[in-house]
Amino acid sequence: MRPSQIMRSGGDGEIGKYGKYLGGWGNFGSQTQKGIASYALSANRQRPLAGALNNAIFNSWRRFRNQVLYFAPPIVIGYYAINWAIERNHYLNSKEGRLEFGEEE
């Protein structure tokens, strides 16, 4: 049994299943390049609000359409109940209402 070999940063040592140590990425035996700068932008940094307004409009409409039957009927019923109560109160406090129901209260 051989002792394990040292993993060097150059990537020249024969280590691994196929006889090459793949730890030194980019070291393929050519000369090192100088003076080349490359800049990149992450995929999630490019146009972060692309399509946000369009998606917001259609997503809001879809969510509203799916939820309207849960909140619209109670609002309509409440509106008609309050409207009936206001009209009934106005009638009971009018001359006709006092003449009709004045003796009962």
From TrEMBL:
<keyword id="KW-0830">Ubiquinone</keyword>
<dbReference type="GO" id="GO:0045275">
    <property type="term" value="C:respiratory chain complex III"/>
</dbReference>
<keyword id="KW-0999">Mitochondrion inner membrane</keyword>
<feature type="transmembrane region" description="Helical">
    <location>
        <begin position="68"/>
        <end position="86"/>
    </location>
</feature>
<comment type="subunit">
    <text>Component of the ubiquinol-cytochrome c oxidoreductase (cytochrome b-c1 complex, complex III, CIII), a multisubunit enzyme composed of 3 respiratory subunits cytochrome b, cytochrome c1 and Rieske protein, 2 core protein subunits, and additional low-molecular weight protein subunits. The complex exists as an obligatory dimer and forms supercomplexes (SCs) in the inner mitochondrial membrane with cytochrome c oxidase (complex IV, CIV).</text>
</comment>
<keyword id="KW-0496">Mitochondrion</keyword>
<dbReference type="InterPro" id="IPR036642">
    <property type="entry name" value="Cyt_bc1_su8_sf"/>
</dbReference>
<comment type="similarity">
    <text>Belongs to the UQCRQ/QCR8 family.</text>
</comment>
<dbReference type="InterPro" id="IPR004205">
    <property type="entry name" value="Cyt_bc1_su8"/>
</dbReference>
<keyword id="KW-0472">Membrane</keyword>
<keyword id="KW-0813">Transport</keyword>
<dbReference type="GO" id="GO:0006122">
    <property type="term" value="P:mitochondrial electron transport, ubiquinol to cytochrome c"/>
</dbReference>
<protein>
    <recommendedName>
        <fullName>Cytochrome b-c1 complex subunit 8</fullName>
    </recommendedName>
</protein>
<keyword id="KW-0812">Transmembrane</keyword>
<keyword id="KW-0679">Respiratory chain</keyword>
<keyword id="KW-1133">Transmembrane helix</keyword>
<comment type="function">
    <text>Component of the ubiquinol-cytochrome c oxidoreductase, a multisubunit transmembrane complex that is part of the mitochondrial electron transport chain which drives oxidative phosphorylation. The complex plays an important role in the uptake of multiple carbon sources present in different host niches.</text>
</comment>
<dbReference type="Pfam" id="PF02939">
    <property type="entry name" value="UcrQ"/>
</dbReference>
<dbReference type="GO" id="GO:0005743">
    <property type="term" value="C:mitochondrial inner membrane"/>
</dbReference>
<keyword id="KW-0249">Electron transport</keyword>
